[in-house]
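Incident review: delayed structure delivery

Summary: a single-chain prediction request sat in the queue longer than the usual turnaround. Root cause was a stuck worker, restarted by the on-call engineer. No data loss occurred. The affected request and its eventual output are reproduced below so the record is complete for anyone auditing the incident later.

Affected input:
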Amino acid sequence: MDNSKYCLISVSDKDGISDFAKSIAKLGYKIISTGGTLKHLQNSGLHLGGVNLIPIEQITGNPESFDGRMKTISFQIESGILFDRKNPEHVKQAKELNILPIDLVVCNLYPFEKENSIENIDVGGPTMIRSAAKNYQNVIAIVDPKDYQIVSDALISKKADEEFRRKLAAKAFWHLSFYDSQVARFFNRIQFPEELTIPLKRFGDLRYGENPHQKATFYLEPGTNSPLKNLKWFWGRELSLVNLTDINAGLESIRSFGKPCAVVIKHNTPCGIALGENSSQALKRAIEADPESAFGGVIILNKSFDLKSAKIIASFKDERRGNIDIIAAPKIEKNALDLLKKVRKTMGVYEFGDIPKQIKNETNLKWIEGGLIVQTPDIDLETGFSNWEVVTKIKPTEDQLAQMKIAWLFLTKMRSNAVIVVDKDLPMTRGIGTGQTSRVRATKIALEQSDSFCQDAILASDSFFPFGDSVKEAAKHGIGAIIQQGDSINDALSVDEANKAGIPMIFTHRRAFWH
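Output delivered after worker restart:
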């Protein structure tokens, strides 16, 4: 058997590969390479014969064929990776069959998320990676360019021990799983397949998890159009799990609106949300909706954060001693940044680019202990307006109907049970009762918070009122119109109470739970 050391290199991501090839050539490795990678190595100064750069067809005995579909899959290559160097019988067979020992396999796969097509489905690459990772005690599998220097150093210092190889093998299998799950999605036409894997790529570490003693990292799906992938940090606090999920909840809350919209989030829940003619007006209204809860909150805008908006944050601090923890918007204007830095240096300031009306994900995931629930997303909210039904003797006015539509869109991203009060004229919340186990309690919280703004305001519920008590409470506080799901067996009780009070009420016939 050949006593030389061999390394097989076939990579999609060619970043750093030439330097790595040169470093291992100095360690006495002969390099076997394929098509595009071979040309890249040659163009980088490595020459056939100069550092023992060997075209793979010299090993397989066959040319690259069928537009590159066949090049690495062969008895000679896979045997060279798979045979056990510690097994005398394997070593004997390798010698008899003239199999070359391939001790390093450097291979990473085409980023399938960039272009989903049949021709971009790699067959030979996964085979080599899987073989090398399986035989990790004898072969080092390298799939990440960031590991080139680490491997070089380990080989030079002779510290590429079994644990080191095992870690690289695990990384190799994750790489395969990530890739294959994308290919499976490409082929899948079933809404809920029997087996499901989710491709996720590590995006970054968080300051901590839900609590300071917990560690956390967050991952994103490849090819996602989520604004979270574009988060740009300017200064201030770096994100914890709660900060990031608050930003995410804010994005969910404002996504439906084309007009300038601002929301203040606390613990993944809006405490104030409003529309405006511009960002600053929307922001001012969102804070005014519940200034007490806004303290220590996270503010998300769907339009640029300008100087006027920064002045509102400054006045909130000066007049109410109110601190904001995080601000995030599609763009933070330079003069706004300058002022925000003077307001509070520890305030985290982020921008995230445009907000798509709808995320690419075809499913919505809810994690549970030991697994997850997959559901279709709750989208196309405005299409449901056509199913609304006036169930009272008095019909809402055009102005009330317009406010009801805004209220319903606000409501869809409130933690259930949720009841909100929206101003009679302005597109802003006045009271939010959310995350309650009792609907009448949620109603009372929203009404109490709204105080004098209840008069002629809009009250919205994300599900039906099981009894007439919530409508009775609304009438006591002077609510002007009610919108709720309806479809309870006791709908008549709520309708009767609304008719007694002369309050127009609409049934949406669509629930808006969000947990």
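Verification: The chain has a mean pLDDT of 93.
Action items: add queue-age alerting; document worker restart procedure.
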